[in-house]
Amino acid sequence: MSEAPVSRGVYKFAVFALAIGAFAIGVTEFATMGLLPMIAEELGITVPQAGHAVSFYAIGVVVGAPLITTIAAHMDRKLLLLCMMGLFALGNLASMLAPTAGLFNIARFVSGLPHGAYLGIGAVVAASLVPVNRRGRAMSRVMLGLTIANIFGVPFAAALGNMLGWRSAYALVAALGVLTVIMVAIAVPRVSVGAGEVPSARGEIKALGRVQIILTLVAGSVGFGGMFAVYAYITPTMTDVAGVPEVAIPWVLAVYGLGMTAGSLIAGPLVDKSIERSATGGMILSALVLAAFGAFTHIAAIAIIALFLIGISGSMITTALQMRLFRESHDAPSLSAAMNHAAFNLANALGAWLGGIVITAGLGYRAPAWVGVGLCLAGLIVISIAIFLRRGGSPDPSTRTSVET
């Protein structure tokens, strides 16, 4: 890492540059879901088939996060950030230009490859620029780009797509990627990794073989998929079932973003009190809210309120599982952080895929919500097993930290 904390001005500029990249990633991850009907119409496919693009992006994250993190473990961090964001920009440019559904899916896969590694390494770089007692705050400020993306960026991309066509949204994201490359090149100090600062790839992979880590990742991959089963098809659901005008969809997406933000604020104190209760509580709340969404989607006001609550429960789940993974994998920090992003994007792929299956089967746009309930309950079972095993067994003392449960 860098030799010493930098000046406050340099730190703020660097974090801002890194947060722009997180903002761009947040926009591209969720914007596709608000543009599916337009994408489907122009490419001559069904909405569930267009939803495959969501899954391809998520699979790109699942593949890229551990692969890039492992291969580039000793690479200069600034250079790695520039390369990843350059690849991100190219992937989104290819998405904008794709003439067929197949090429569009490939472009989305490429766009997802740098997602997890950029966010993980960007947060670590930000933390390296400040004293130890301010590193958590530095990392959270980089991640703030994701939250702001869901409140402002995704709705704006949806509105831009409605006005200028869906390709304009990917042009916007590609431009943000190029801007991030420029900003990181100017603002972020050179950060290299010394030989003794990074565990070996073999050591990190071995650490990830622990039962608690595996169960936590599986719980995230399954349980968080409930939210994506609904959100992947939120535009046609709200327009066709709830009767919301298409021009109002950006505002609906903003409601979800506000729910995520509120959930992040709520989750912090709850996780500080109990990681385990926050994880199980988030899963239960998500299942209940998804059931309400499925039952009352035809009432626009209730559907929108439920979407806000889905955002809250989603943030509770991600925060709790992130902290649980951090606690259980303190000696495998780089790869576990990457795999955490991979797990949640696997949930993205799983939810979108299963939601598309029930829609294609003729069960309608309410059906993904019930799929989501099932996924949340499955995730609840997995995390409950993990908690039971941890309390009933005798964990390796090396896995214990000062983080209370």
UniProtKB/TrEMBL annotation:
Pfam families: MFS_1 (PF07690). Keywords: Cell membrane, Membrane, Transmembrane, Transmembrane helix. The chain crosses the membrane at residues 12-40, 52-72, 79-104, 116-132, 144-164, 170-192, 213-234, 249-271, 278-296, 302-321, 342-363, 369-389. One of its GO terms (molecular function) is transmembrane transporter activity. It is found in: Cell membrane. Residues 14-391 form the Major facilitator superfamily (MFS) profile domain. Gene3D superfamilies: MFS general substrate transporter like domains. It is a multi-pass membrane protein. It comes from the Bacteria. CDD domains: MFS_NepI_like. Its main location: membrane. GO terms for cellular component: plasma membrane. InterPro entries: MFS, MFS_dom, MFS_Efflux_Transporters, MFS_trans_sf. This is Major facilitator superfamily MFS_1.
